[in-house]
Write a structure and sequence with these properties.
4 strands; 4-stranded antiparallel beta sheet; binds zinc ion
C-alpha cells in the first residue's frame, strides 16, 4: 500500500490521472494535477488497478476508475484508467 498523504522524495512531480477510451483510443486527463513521487508510481498504479479504486489522497478518492467518452465518430465509449501522465511545469 502506498500512502499518498506522505509525499516525500527526490522525484516529486505533478501527474494527471489519465484514461484511454476502448473504442476510439482517445486519451483523456481528469481534473487537476496531483503531486506524486515518481518512484512510488508503479506500486501506486498496481494498487489502483488491483482494487479498482483510488485511495489515500483527497483528490484521488474522488477520481472514477472509468469515464464515458464522447467519441469523435459519433460513438460513446468507456475510457478506463490508463495511468498517470506527468504534467510539465511548476510544482
Ligand atoms: Zn472514445
Amino acid at each position: 500500500m502506498v500512502d499518498l498523504k506522505i509525499v516525500q522524495g527526490k522525484n516529486i512531480k505533478l501527474y494527471d490521472v489519465a484514461y484511454r477510451c476502448t473504442l476510439c483510443s482517445k486519451v483523456m486527463r481528469l481534473g487537476k494535477a496531483v503531486k506524486l513521487e515518481y518512484n512510488d508510481l508503479p506500486a501506486l498504479c498496481g494498487t489502483i488497478v488491483q482494487q479498482k479504486q483510488f485511495r489515500g489522497n483527497p483528490y484521488f478518492q474522488t477520481a472514477p476508475f472509468e469515464v464515458p467518452c464522447k467519441c469523435t465518430n459519433g460513438n460513446c465509449g468507456i475510457a478506463y484508467f490508463a495511468g498517470l501522465i506527468e504534467v510539465k511545469g511548476e510544482l
